[in-house]
Amino acid sequence: MKTITSLKLFFKPEKDVIIPPYSSKLSRSIILKILEKEGLTSIVDRIRKPMTHKPYVFTVVFHGNKPLYRTEEEKKPLMLKGRRVYWFKFTIIESVEAHKVVGAVASRSNVEVYSTKFSIVGIEAETVDFRKVGFEENPEQLHVKFITPVLLQIPRPRKLRGKVGVRHLLFPIPSLMIYSLAKHWNSNAPEEVKIPNIVKLAKISNYILTEVDHQIKPETVIYDEKRRPRGFTGWTLYKLNRKVSEKHYKTILKLLKYANYIGVGRSRTIGFGTTQTTSRTPRS
Which CATH architecture has domain 133-280? Predict the structure, then answer.
């Protein structure tokens, strides 16, 4: 049985500490240091190994509901306050590894990163089987909140590769979102639940998902000394038209629920494209 496990880790720095401008680097450092301390070097090596559609996702650090990262407009370094509670999520797609990771984190009371001790003050874990991902009801509307910048890429034709760089759109076009999610799903899901013909699914998603309202804004963030990724944050309310195709309607619901665990778009492994999809009842 292949599962998706989302581990939410609450922590406190013992003192004020400046962290990288895109705080998922801290999330990753904390998890890797814990795994190294617990002797789980094989999992550490897998996390560090370059691969497409990685089965691991680190979110940025949050304070309450606020994601922490620096934008181009902000001049001050990103700092965490000592003795204040923060949290992040680490998602892993692999049943055996997830069990080991949860056990390792649960056994640690603190970890030292960036010459600062971080106390582990709580954990929450959620595990779901791939075959059960989806909404219990059949919603007529979905509200998709884009919590961290989404880097939604337009697929490049082969003849343009090497001639043009990666192109990101600054609006959540359904076909691009669904294509991105389906590719990730098929790379990690068990064979029996993989999605056939994802190109067709992506095309038809533009007719099943219709924008009813939105509040989207572009945002440029500071990732490191050189890179300044530009994506979009905000939310979109979609009306669902299941009459187009009942089969594709259910697949799209499944994928947008999957996005709650792994995000949307490029660089989701390092905390871009974190989303929260919830069902809505239309106003009468």
Answer: 2-Layer Sandwich (3.30)
Residues 137 and 132: their CA atoms lie apart, in Å, by 13
pLDDT band at 284 (very low <50, low <70, confident <90, very high): low
Q: Which long-range contacts (CB under 8 A, 24 or more apart) does 46-49 make?
A: 46/97
Query: What pTM was computed for the model?
Result: 0.93
Terminal-residue alpha carbon distance, the chain? 42
Burial class of residue 163, CB neighbours in 10 A (0-12, 13-18, 19+): exposed
Q: Name the residue type at position 64.
A: G
The CA-based dihedral angle spanning residues 216, 220, 221, 223, taken in that order and rounded to the nearest 10 degrees: 130
Please give the mean pLDDT across all residues of the chain: 93
Look at residues 201, 5, 1, 191 and name the one whose alpha carbon lies nearest to residue 98: 5
Please write the tens of the pLDDT for every residue from 177-186. 999 999 999 9
**CATH 3.30.420.40 at 3-129, yes or no:** no
Q: What is the mean pLDDT of residues 199-217?
A: 96
Beta-bridged to residue 119, according to DSSP, are: 12, 110
